[in-house]
Amino acid sequence: MSEKRTKRGIVLALLAASLWGISGTFSQFLFQQRNINVEWLMAVRMLVSGILLLAFSGIKKDSDLLKIWRTKKDRLQLLSFGLTGMLTVQYTYFAAIRHSNAATATILQYAGPVIIAGYLALKNKKAPAWPGCLAILMAVSGTFLLVTHGNVHTLNISGTALILGIASAIALAIYTLQPVSL
């Protein structure tokens, strides 16, 4: 890979991370200050991002935008990923923001890797190595402290926000694991 492409990749990765980072905070502002609903925001985000991705892909020489739609198996996998992966992870994340805040929703969603580790441990019939177990323990402990402030008898967030956050973590795990064959 050329140095120019490497630099471009780094810049694009940093830009993507920055835009993702501010999207939760911006969404929280729209929900709380402008009373925008989750469904409208999701529809606009998904539509605009889909159009942009298709446009950028179409510009690329030798791109075949319709290739994935040619076989029934690919169509079903793509539709399944779009609905159970992309739509679910986006909706539960933004709904969790709506019912709590961007930071809490993000932390709850990123319990997803704990779910992935658990799934893979069961699937492979092998527990994670001790550093992985330690990371899981720390992630679960931190999440517990966030939502309870250390008191098992109280929740620091609404029950709805907690359920949506956990659903978002599960959706993130599905979103991550599902497209393996796409």
From TrEMBL:
Keywords: Membrane, Transmembrane, Transmembrane helix. One of its GO terms (cellular component) is membrane. It comes from the Bacteria. PANTHER family: ACYL-MALONYL CONDENSING ENZYME-RELATED, MOBA-LIKE NTP TRANSFERASE DOMAIN-CONTAINING PROTEIN. It comes from Niabella drilacis (strain DSM 25811 / CCM 8410 / CCUG 62505 / LMG 26954 / E90). The keyword Transmembrane applies. This is EamA-like transporter family protein. Signal peptide: none annotated. The chain crosses the membrane at residues 37-56, 76-96, 102-122, 129-149, 155-177. Residues 8-147 form the EamA domain. InterPro entries: EamA_dom (IPR000620), EmrE-like (IPR037185). It holds the Pfam family EamA.
